Amino acid sequence: MIDDKKTEKELMRIGVSLPDNLLTKFDNIIEERGYSSRSEGIRDAIRSYINHYEWMNDIKGKRVGTISLVYDHTKRGLSNMMADIQHEHSNIIKTSIHVHLDHENCLEVVVLEGDGIEIKLLAEKILSLNGVKFSKLTTVPSTDKL
């Protein structure tokens, strides 16, 4: 049996500032998914983030993969920073596809093959750039391990 008093003491209360549009989207999602509170949704989101981080730390050995991202190409200097990062890792980039979605947004898919640690490093550099609106890294073992 769980001791509720002990559980209550272990909970930590935090404050978070969010833009209105992000909070509205989050509230809509937690309502659709049937969460009983924002706190429950935030705990689930944090668990998901931790799982993703742990998965990213386990990308090792020879891998193939993709980085899919949407970014604001009007963001000053962003395209040049992305190009510089990709040139630094040209040894693992097999090809990339660039699609203009609208006046501001571009979709890019980068196809990779190489050491998992370098793939992860490249992805993290791109993911952290200001102006990248969406990004996802997907990897699988190289074909010799499939």
UniProtKB/TrEMBL annotation:
InterPro entries: Acetolactate_synth/TF_NikR_C, ACT-like_dom_sf, Arc_rbn_hlx_hlx, CopG, CopG/NikR_regulator, Ni_resp_reg_NikR, Ribbon_hlx_hlx, TF_NikR_Ni-bd_C. Binds 1 nickel ion per subunit. Its cofactor is Ni(2+). Keywords: DNA-binding, Metal-binding, Nickel, Transcription, Transcription regulation. The keyword Cell membrane does not apply. Residues 64-140 form the Transcription factor NikR nickel binding C-terminal domain. GO terms for molecular function: DNA binding; DNA-binding transcription factor activity; nickel cation binding. It comes from the Archaea. Residues 12-51 form the Ribbon-helix-helix protein CopG domain. One of its GO terms (biological process) is response to nickel cation. Ni(2+) binds at H87, H98, H100, C106. SUPFAM superfamilies: ACT-like, Ribbon-helix-helix. Pfam families: NikR_C, RHH_1. NCBIfam families: PRK00630.1 (NF001884), PRK01002.1 (NF002169), PRK02967.1 (NF002815), PRK04460.1 (NF003381). Belongs to the transcriptional regulatory CopG/NikR family. Transcriptional regulator. This is Putative nickel-responsive regulator.
